[in-house]
Hints:
The chain has a single domain (8-198, 210-493), classed as Up-down Bundle (Growth Hormone, Chain: A). It is 79% helix and 0% strand. The protein is built from 19 helices and no strands. The protein is globular and about 70 Å long.
Amino acid sequence: MRIFRLPAAWFLLIAVNIFWLGLNIRNNAVNAIFMPFLVERFTGPEIHNTALGAMRTAGLVIAMLVQPAVGLLSDRSTSRFGRRRPFLVVGVIFDVILLGWIALAGSYWSLLAAVLFFQVSSNISHGALQSLIPDLVPEKQRGTASAIKAIFELLPVVLLGVTIAPLVGMGHFTWAVAATAAALIAILLITISILPETPLKEPVHAPLSPDLLRVLGMLGGILGGAVSGLAVGSAGGLLAGLLAWPFWGAETARMLGIGVGGVLSMLVSVLGGSWAGVRLTIGKTAHDASSFRWWVANRLMFLAGITSIQGFAPYFLMYAFHTTIEQAAAMTGQLFTTVGIFTLLSALPAGYLSDRLGQSRLVAISGVMAAAGTGAIILTVWHPNLHLLYTAGSILGLATGLFVTINWALGTNLVPGAESGHWLGVSNLAGAGAGMIGSGIGGPLADILNAAAPGLGYFTILSGYALLFFFSAVCLLGIKQPPGSENATHLSKA
């Protein structure tokens, strides 16, 4: 019996999306609050960016394998409880256990082990969840469904700023972890109670092993892209250093070379990794999926920027405003609240705007806005100003709201419905790959340059993230939606 008498269409749209609220409470709490807090406790300011970047990179390697593999398995599940629902339950059970391990970790290595196992469990539920919209929502309603999904993804940013982050700031870390686990369990129970999922009627007989092997191609693609990026970045950095040496001397030339090389490595890694990963994971049909490849590249570039800024925010605030890690955690929460409010403000009308301006155009605008917001943050590196910081957060929030709402709707129009779990699982190349590139390269780069000149590392990596946002907009030039798809638009006609 339904307690709330919502129209059937709206009830469905909420049912398929509400678990995104729990998933993002969990993910944002662990990645943006708990991990930076504990890494700082176990290491120190000299290497905390590198230590956090290494932990995030190792965990995201696992995420890149687990999430699309679960998408494939859930596509074929014949459980009487539905294709996706059992994976949500199993994932949350292990999430709660591993959140307890994270709370009790007594060293960096214990925390690292907990985070790696947590990446397995959290991506079991994530891999199944992302197929609910193409499974259950008619194509003509997917724009609205994606807007609701975006709201449930973005609400946690606001909620963490007024709940979890202040608890950590006041020294109640264990209570913060317990609150996260309780919220996740409560939202799971609501989801499995109202989700109108039915069992798969006909089992899938096509062999599974080729597709599972292609999942390894995703990891190979992003790692190959990273290697190529590092090679190109090293060459570019060396050239920049050699050109600068006669004018500014050896030490300045060395710092310039490292900075240029690091930023160039991020840019090349993103583009090369996304294209190679899609080709190796999707297989031969990737040749006919040019728009999908550009969509993954766009998603990877934007998410690499936004997730990296989010992940390193506590350490940047510690440096810029000379605070403790507890104070920085609380400030991070306040900043996230600002970002979250403005994200929601832009997400709500995004579906309406996309009908008139086109999906591709709005996603491109979001990239340019995010680059501008990051530029404002860069100004606070050497001239700390809370008003400027919150203004930058507001701009980033508006950009993120547009992106997360419209980008996913754009992607669902580019994938075949029968294999949505597999294809959308490739979008994990964008989520997890973004974290690997932004944190794996950005963390060591920040520590090396900060050691040479305080603040230089943060200036450099933020400049790199601003460029990623800008080039995410450029990627939209390659996307053409199928004729007749909802809100189809060509950027070239915009």
